[in-house]
Design brief:
65 residues
Length: 65
């Protein structure tokens, strides 16, 4: 992916994909591509959550010094 996707946009796109799958709006021809994209979005969200958690832990660790 060439440009950075923020967490909110990634979650919104992921929710849209999941809703489409649940509502049978995604054809079998599109399904593989949508699942691959959902996997990419999950990785983006996880990375952002892990980074945020680390940043917060670092800040709180500085306060304890």
């Amino acid at each position: 992916m060439s440009k950075e996707v923020n967490y909110e946009k990634a979650m919104h796109e992921l929710e849209t994909i999941v809703a489409g799958i649940e509502d049978d709006q995604i054809s079998i021809d599109e399904l593989s591509a949508k699942v691959k994209r959902a996997t990419e979005l999950i990785k983006i969200c996880q990375g952002k959550l892990y980074k945020t958690e680390k940043d917060i832990a670092d800040v709180l660790g500085e306060l304890e010094k």
